[in-house]
Amino acid sequence: MKKIKNEAELVAEALRVGALYIKKRGVGEFEASDSAKNKVTYLYRLLAHDKLIQPLAKGQDNEPNMRHKLALWISRQLPEDHPLLKD
After folding, report:
1. Which of 54, 58, 78, 87 is most buried, by the most CB atoms less than 10 A from its CB?
2. Per its UniProt record, what Gene3D superfamilies does this chain match (predicted)?
3. Residues with Cβ < 8 Å from 79, sequence gap 6 or more?
């Protein structure tokens, strides 16, 4: 797994955008008391269920890999000139 530049910031943006997606889809919403790990897991599983990202192989579905997948997903959703995608 190749490390993505600004991965932590991309994951934070993915959680922000993902929270909007979850609410718009009507399947719940993130609470302030939810842990980051739970948010990452829920968003990853929802996106995989909706076929917006390719699911990880069995045995590879751990938090670091889920965070990486979310970072890849959001990097494809952002415009090319977005500050998080700059080198």
Report:
1. 78
2. Uncharacterised protein PF16691, DUF5062
3. none
Express each pLDDT in 59-87 by its tens digit: 998 999 999 999 999 999 999 888 888 86
Domain boundaries, the chain: 7-76
CA distance 4 to 24: 28
The structure tokens listed for 67 are: 């965070």
Yes or no: say if 85 and 18 are a contact pair by the CB < 8 Å rule.
Answer: no
- pLDDT confidence band for 4 (50 / 70 / 90): confident
For 78, half-sphere exposure in the C-beta direction (CA atoms, 13 angstrom radius) is 21
Which residue would you say has higher pLDDT here, 5 or 55?
Answer: 55
